[in-house]
Amino acid sequence: MTCQITFLPVGNADSIVIQSNESLVIIDLGKLEILEDWLEKHKVTKINKIYVTHAHSDHFPDLIKLATFLGNWLETNPSTTLTLCLPYLEIQRARNNVIVNRGSFRARLLEDALNRIIKWDDQNEYIQFTPLVSQKEDYIDNFFRVDVLHPTQVYIENHLATTKSKLNEVSAVLLLTYGCFSALFLADIEGTGLTKLLEKYNRSKAFDFIQKVNLVKIPHHGAWPKNGEDLKTLLEFIDPEIAVLSVGSQNNYGHVKPELFNALSNLKNDSSKRLSQFICTEVTRTCKSSASDCSAMKNKGLSSTEKCAGEITIIAEEFGKWKLKTETKHSDVVKKFNYAACTERANLI
Fold first, then answer.
1. What are the start-end ranges of the H helices in 204-284?
2. Three-class SS of residue 95?
3. How many CB atoms are closer than 10 A to CB 104?
4. DSSP 148-167
């Protein structure tokens, strides 16, 4: 028996498919068309649960595209049932947009999408909608289990009431366990959300089962938060064996930040830590350019998209062993770059 975790190459976005013998779970819907193609290619006919970690467009397509996706899914897979975790208050935000912009073409499309979602919710037969808040054993199936570690409902409500624009801080953090294997998916967590998560690791007996993990999905596509020391501490605490970065070559945010690559390199070179590899879906400017050239580029990304590992799949056994499968021949790809961070050649000054 195995569990496969597949990171789709969706640029500076997230779309992750997790499969076991009995379950299929999706984390985030960045570039939904790529996910749809993947599901069709692999002849997937059952989705157990979809987690949307937060409402930013690189993780959540919007309710119009979501309703279209769900409608198409039900049409081609009419006998299946799935559970969908929407971002907190997303229905309320959409309804307010319809009211404010009533009469516009987009408002009509959005209202139609809302009505379809409300109808599915009323029927409660094929699609079940649930909140995405911290609770133990959010999804469990034999050896396969997903827990939501952050945020709590109290944190979400308090946070959004005071800092509505900082959605990354309420992005959901998920822990997958499959027998002795574990993976931590950090979405875009940063700021006070990251601090809260770290505090939970440090003090809460309810989270004693969280120890070291085999795999970590690095948050926010290789950004470096203002509280970067908290991220470093968290990475040291969970002590992963492999780190995956879902990053876009053409992003205009300066990702992957040198500070993030430095933190990963330091962990990899620390003999007391377990990190043996970090790997990116797409090529970053940091791996193709010197520090001075990157500085001159400011936050500008590369001129074209280039796959580094491309689609990344971790095939995990219930006894904790795992192996890596990449779409490209990754070792040959990185040989072409003078400053490949994953091979300790980056110029990160």
1. 228-238, 258-268
2. helix
3. 12
4. EEE--HHHHHHHHHH-TT-G
Residue 325's contacts (CB-CB under 8 Å, 6 or more residues apart) are 312, 313, 314, 315
pLDDT value at position 277?
96
Look at the block and give the residue holding tokens 């699609």.
Answer: 127
In angstroms, the CA 30 to CA 16 distance is 9
For residues 194 and 229, what is the distance between their CA atoms, to the nearest angstrom? Answer: 10
- Tokens of residue 325, six digits: 């499968």
Say how far apart CA 68 and CA 74 lie, in whole Å: 10
Q: Residue 88 — pLDDT band, cuts 50, 70, 90?
A: confident
CA angle (175, 17, 142) in 5-degree steps:
55
- In angstroms, the CA 254 to CA 121 distance is 41
pTM: 0.95
Cα angle for residues 133, 126, 7 (degrees, 5° grid): 55
Q: Are 244 and 216 in contact (CB under 8 A)?
A: yes
Contact 17, 33 (CB under 8 A): no
By the 8 A CB rule, do 189 and 173 touch? yes
CA of 253: how far to CAs of 143, 264, 300, 301, in Å? 39, 19, 7, 7
List the Cα angle 83/87/90 in 5-degree steps. Answer: 110
Task: Return the pLDDT at 137.
Answer: 61
